[in-house]
Predict the 3D structure of the following.
Amino acid sequence: DIQMTQSPSTLSASVGDRVTITCRASQSVNRWLAWYQQKPGKAPKLLIYMASSLEIGVPSRFSGSGSGTDFTLTINSLQPDDFATYYCQQYNSYARTFGQGTKVEIK
Amino acid sequence: EVQLVESGGGLVKPGGSLRLSCVASGITVSSAWLSWVRQAPGKGLEWVGHIKSKTDDGATDYAAPVKGRFSISRDDSKNTVYLQMSSLTSEDTAFYYCSTTSGSFDSWGQGTLVSVSS
C-alpha cells in the first residue's frame, strides 16, 4: 500500500496566520490527492480533490498544490472555524490511504 | 443534496458478527461508488472498502486488515449499502462512516460506533 506521511503532526497557530501542512507519498500518486477537515465528533469534510481543486462551498483561503509525491495544504488567514484536524488521502491506488493527520491548535 | 445515514453499530463480543447499513438519499446507490471508512477512537482515518457502481461492474475492494472478514453489498430497492463484518476483534472497534466516492470521499454520513469487547 502507498504510505502517506503528514507533517507536522500538531501545529499551533493564531487567527490570521498562514498555515502550511505537507503530505508526502511513498510513491507517486500523480495528482490523485485529496484533503479533508475533521472537527471533534464530526465526520470528515472534503476540502480539496485532484491536489488543487477546491470543493464547492469551501472558502478560498484553502488551497492545495503539488504532484507526484509531495503536496501541501495552505490556509491563508486562519479563521476560528479552521481549528481542526486535517488529513490527506491518495486515490492513485485502489487501496486508498490516509495520512496520520495534522491537528491545528490555537496558539 | 446527498444524505447518508448509517446504522447498526453497537457492542459485540470478539469473534462475533455485525451488519451495518447506510441508507442513501439524493443519489441512487446503484449508480455510485460507495465506500466505508473507519476511525478508531482518537485515531486517524482508515479506508475499509468500496463497492463500485453497476456500470463499473459492481465489484468490491477491501483493505488488507478486513479482507476475507468484511463484505460490502447493495440493495438497490432500498437504496442501501451494507457492511457485513465477521470474526471481529478489538482492532475493529471504531466509528464506521459511509461515503460516496469518486476517488476522494465526497459526502459522508454521521457514522456509527462499533465496539468489540468481551
The CA atoms of residues 32 and 50 of chain A lie 5 Å apart. Chain A is about 0% helix and 50% strand. Chain A touches chain B at residues 1, 32, 34, 36, 38, 43-46, 49-50, 55, 87, 89, 91, 94-101 (CB under 8 Å).
